[in-house]
């Protein structure tokens, strides 16, 4: 029900932030959930990286200005569907919306969009009780990037298959991890980690494991140094719509 994801990153002006968010939550996002074939919509606020992920930004490559990639990263809207073609019938950029939607949506700045197809997933221990095809979890980490060479891309995919996915399948607090590839947009690859809370992500994911990304001798350290990320990637987000109801027992 949700093997395709339409992702939109953007910023908002400080002087109109709360009013814009209230409108998005009351009108635009519910409108998206009513579109034929759209399984869910979710809205996340970028909370900023923890200490280990902050160091990631120091040595992972990011898109140069010459690429012309928009820089929005304060918020990300995710929409799920069964197929990438769902977003083409009708085209997601040409949805028939009420007339007052256009000026409100125009308040979003530095907007960047990608349509992803899911290539692999692994459920984590915290996935128990989650319904198939339901809205993503209260906390996410979402990385979007390209790889410099064929050999490095092969190494990246082997690392996911042999190391990262098995780790996420047993990590406390991990709900679901999806590896994505793009149909449309600058980034070719996406990795979407879902956690039952930001606290779980920090405790079980970032602190014990992500510190290894600084080690160029470790497999993860080599993989990270081969990536070219979109601005602000990876984003660590807390879900602000729909309202979070704890999935913990």
Protein architecture, described:
By secondary structure, this protein is of the alpha+beta class. The mean pLDDT is 89.
Keywords:
alpha+beta, globular, 6 helices, 249 residues
Q: Mind sketching the topology for me?
A:
Elements lengths: L3 E8 L5 H17 L4 E9 L4 H9 L1 E2 L12 E7 L19 H5 L3 E15 L15 E9 L2 H21 L3 E11 L4 E7 L2 H12 L9 H6 L2 E3 L5 E7 L8
Parallel strand pairs: 3-9
Antiparallel strand pairs: 1-4, 1-5, 2-4, 2-10, 5-7, 6-8, 6-9, 6-10, 7-8
Q: Sheet bearing the most strands, described? A: 8 strands, antiparallel, barrel
| Sequence of strands across the biggest β-sheet | 1-4-2-10-6-8-7-5
Mean pLDDT: 89
Shape: globular
N- and C-termini, Cα separation? 25 Å
Radius of gyration: 18 Å
How many helical elements?
A: 6
Please give the number of β-strands: 10
Helix content: 25-40%
User: Structural class, judged by helices and strands?
Assistant: alpha+beta
How much β-strand is present in the residues? Answer: 25-35%
